[in-house]
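Technical note accompanying the year-one report. For the benefit of new consortium partners, we illustrate the data format agreed upon in the data management plan: each record pairs a sequence with a structure-token string. No post-processing was applied to the example shown here.
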Amino acid sequence: MRGVGVDIVELRRIENIRHLDRFVQFILSENEIRQMLSVSHRVQFVASRFAAKEAVIKAVPEVLTYLDFEIIKEDGKPVVRFLKPAMWRYRAFLSLAHSTEYVVSFALVL
């Protein structure tokens, strides 16, 4: 095991972001932005991706930025896809949960 990370995001904080479009461009890949545009609960989508990315960044033993990887869905489950070939040696497992007020994510990196 290389690392673990956890993060929690309050949905209200995402709702209150003045320039959500700029924030989204800072944290989401183009593929993730396309996914966001196809869902009806965009605030929850952004909050879940932000929590997931923060958890992964905390778990990986190297410096990562939000755009070095993306969170995709495979078989209904969140999957981490590293975009930099140097990061392909890692495997990341991710869990997401949400309520009406919070989103929480847990990441395990091997």
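Partners are asked to follow this layout when depositing records. The chain has a mean pLDDT of 96.
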